Amino acid sequence: MKIQKIAFYGVLLAITVAAPFLFPSFSTQLATLWLFIIVSMTWDMTGGQMGYNSLGNIFFYGTGMYVAAVIAIGLVYDVGEYTGASGGGRYDFTNEQYILGFVLGSLGAGIFCAISAVILGYVLFGLRGPYFAIGTLGTAIAAGELVSNWDWVGGGQGITLPVYSGDFDQTKLFIYFAFAITGVILFIFLKWLYTTRFGAAINAIRDDEEKAEAMGIHTMRYKLVTWAMSAFFIGVVGGISAFQLISFEPLETAYQTINLGIFMVVCVLLGGKGTLWGPIIGAIMFQIFKEVTWNYFLGWQWVALGALIVVTVVYFQDGLMGWLRTQKPEWFGVVVDDKDGEAVR
C-alpha cells in the first residue's frame, strides 16, 4: 500500500512538472488551476476543517498583490513617484531586480497577510456563523475601497509592474512553477497538519466550540493560528499573481469579491468541505467547467455558474468526496458489513 501511494504521488509530481511543456499553449490556464487549488485548500482550512466560513479571504489575496508590488518597486524606485507617473516615465527592472523583487515581494506579502489575519481575527472571531461570513466580506469590500482611494499605491488606476526582460514563454513557465511549488508545499504541509493534535483541535472547534473550550482547548489561539497560516499562503499567491498579471487595480482585479472570492468557495463545495483532496478535486472540476462555459457559452457563463452552485448545494451538499464516502466507504478505509454479515474494507 505504501509503495502504491509513493507511485501515485510520483505520477502526480511528474504530471505537474511535464504539464506546461506538454501543453505550452495552456500554461496560463494551468497556472490559474494551481491558483484555484491553493486558494481552495486555504479556504478549507478555516471553512471546512474549523467550521468558520469566510467570504472575505479575497482580502488576503488583494493585499498580497499590493504588498508584493510595493516591496518589488520599493527595492528600486520611490513607490509614490513610480505610481504617480501614470505611465509618463520609463521604469525598468533588470533580471536580477525582477527575481529579487518577486521572491521578497511574495514572501513579504505572505508574512504581512499572516500578521493581518491575527489582528483582524481578534475582532472577527468574536462573530460566529453568518455574522463571521458577513464580517469578513465587509472587510474585503472596505479594503478594496480604501486602496482605490490611496494615491500612494496608484489609487483607482492600480499598479503596472515592470516586466521581465527575458523571453515571454520563460516568464510564463516561471510563474507556473511558482504557483505549482507553492501548491505542492501547501499540500504536504496540510497533509501533515491534519494528522496532528492541531488538526484534531480545529476539527473539535468545528464540531462543537463550547465543548472544545470545556475540554481545555484554547479556541481563540487555534483559530488565529489557522487563519494566519491560511492567510500566509493566500498572500504568497496574491504576490505571484501581481507579477503574472503585471497590471492590476483594486476593485476588479485585486479585491475581486464576486469572482475569485466566490470561486474559491464553490471549488470547496464541489469537491467536499473538510477533506484534504476535496478542494483539489473541486478546483480541477471548476476550472474545466469555467473554461468550457467561458469559451463556448459566453454571455451565459454566470447563469451556468449559478446553476452549478444550486445543483451542488441541493443535491451534493457534502461535495464529490462526501458523496463518494457514502457510496464507496471502503475506499476511505471505513469498515462495512457485506450481505453475509462479514466485515469488509
Provide structural commentary.
The chain is an all-alpha fold and 345 residues long. It folds into two domains: 32-257, no CATH class; 260-345, no CATH class. 71% of the residues lie in helices and 2% in strands. The chain has 15 helices and four strands. The strands form two sheets. The chain has a two-stranded antiparallel ribbon with strand order 1-2. Strands 3-4 form a two-stranded antiparallel sheet. The longest helix has 30 residues, at 95-124. The chain is globular and about 60 Å long.
Could you name the key traits of this structure?
mainly alpha, two-stranded antiparallel ribbon, 71% helix, 345 residues
**Low-confidence region ranges:** none
What is the averaged pLDDT score?
A: 88
**Percentage of residues assigned to helices:** over 70%
Radius of gyration: 21 Å
Major sheet: size, sense and barrel closure? 2 strands, antiparallel
| Spatial gap, N to C terminus | 14 Å
Count of β-strands: 4
Task: Strand order, main sheet: write it out.
Answer: 1-2
Fraction in beta strands: under 5%
* Count of DSSP-assigned helices: 15
Inertia-based shape: globular
The total tally of domains equals 2
Topology as H/E string?
A: HHHHHHEHHHHEHHHHHEE
Which structural class do you get from the secondary structure elements? mainly alpha
